[in-house]
């Protein structure tokens, strides 16, 4: 009962839209930082062991795709809320 009242009050004030926009922006920022950290670590690893460049690049691309997929899912959920 109390939860439904709180949800109605939130929808009326627009806090819900602000929260969805904030969630989407945090998902994009987090994904950008994560992919940047993966790229940095991969370049450092390739610089230290050039013979392992193929394996490092493959793992980097897979990790970046997983992070991007999670971010896209978060943005889609926030978009549905809007």
What report would you give on this structure?
This protein is an all-alpha fold and 82 residues long. It has a single domain, classed as F1F0 ATP synthase subunit C (F1FO ATP Synthase, Up-down Bundle). It is 91% helix and 0% strand. It has three helices and no strands. α2 packs antiparallel against α3.
Q: What can be said about this structure in brief?
A:
It contains three helices and no strands.
Distance between the first and last residues' Cα:
24 Å
CATH architecture: Up-down Bundle
Q: Uncertain segments of ≥5 residues (pLDDT<50)?
A: none
Fraction of residues in helices? over 70%
What would you report as the Rg, rounded to the nearest angstrom? 19 Å
CATH domain class: Mainly Alpha
**Largest beta-sheet characterization:** none
Topology-level CATH name? F1FO ATP Synthase
Tell the overall outline: rod-shaped
What is the CATH superfamily? F1F0 ATP synthase subunit C
**Quaternary:** single chain
Helix segment tally: 3
Q: What is the average of the pLDDT values?
A: 87
Portion in beta strands = under 5%
Tally of strands: 0
**Classification by helices and strands:** mainly alpha
User: What are the secondary-structure elements, in order, as H or E?
Assistant: HHH
């Amino acid at each position: 009962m109390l939860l439904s009242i709180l949800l109605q009050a939130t929808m009326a004030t627009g806090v819900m839209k602000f929260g969805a926009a904030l969630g989407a922006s945090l998902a994009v920022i987090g994904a950008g930082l994560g992919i940047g950290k993966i790229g940095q670590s991969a370049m450092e690893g390739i610089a230290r062991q050039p013979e392992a460049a193929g394996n490092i690049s493959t793992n980097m691309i897979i990790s970046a795709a997983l992070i991007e997929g999670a971010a896209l899912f978060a943005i889609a959920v926030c978009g549905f809320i809007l």
